[in-house]
């Protein structure tokens, strides 16, 4: 891959650990994490009782940042917080447009009047947020004030910041971000995730979500327990494990990465920029491993499988087949994509190293 020299291969295979864990269930993951990183997890749990850190997640869209943080919360609990800058901006936009949210709007404006500092007036920044001024970009200083408000409302804990820096000119802000959010004595860390474009493309094309809970799955790469067959169209579809509803594709996803290629390339430039920064520790995570050497580093159940389906006329049920899935990375190398828990094991081990635990 492009960053192969910078993103080393890490070993999750542990000598003497022979069980195959079901990584699709909380119980299976609990046993897996204990077997693969139990000692390191205990070190981090002890650290998080009285310390925090600020981690900036740098990766292309759909690289799994939210999933990795969700798994960290599954292991460590509420001492881990995931702050998605995009979600913060979108939520603020909704409130500022909603006439029924008068009290919250007033609170937001009071907060911004106190904390926002920038070259654009606050009124103009709000207009840019609401899209009334299409010529003006949303100032980084305004975004940071919104993020600070979000963090101020959270219990103190370790922060995973998703979506900042987003632009190249925002990278320098990261050096002072922990001071801005009153985490000035806590370590800050860049976490970069390398993922082939082809994996993102497959994730997008086959992604589906539950209409009720918005939980994402993937018809090809992350099936649910129950799969049904539409007799009229011949289509196989997933049912949400929690709500039993038919999961549906998001508008535009079937086009894959092409509509967002420019954004993905910009995300890659941010990772390039990170390698030139000094003074902030870096954690490097790989989503994919070369197929010809993968099993030297990981166990087979840590690899993303491919799911295919067949309608059984006799039983009137769908049968699901799981098989190995390989794909070409950005350099044309045949690779396996790792399941999220395997990447999180590597994240935990590198965190312990960076924090010198």
TrEMBL record:
Matches recorded under Gene3D superfamilies: P-loop containing nucleotide triphosphate hydrolases
Recorded GO MF terms: ATP binding; nucleobase-containing compound kinase activity
A biological process term (GO) from this entry: nucleotide biosynthetic process
Pfam family, one: ADK
Keyword Transferase among UniProt keywords: yes
InterPro entries assigned: Adenylat/UMP-CMP_kin, Adenylat_kinase_CS, P-loop_NTPase
SUPFAM superfamilies reported for this sequence: P-loop containing nucleoside triphosphate hydrolases
Keywords, in A-Z order: Kinase, Nucleotide biosynthesis, Nucleotide-binding, Transferase
Leader sequence residues: none
Classification via PANTHER family: NUCLEOTIDE KINASE
Protein name per its UniProtKB record: Adenylate kinase
Organism: Candidatus Kaiserbacteria bacterium RIFCSPLOWO2_01_FULL_50_24
Lineage: Bacteria, Candidatus Kaiseribacteriota
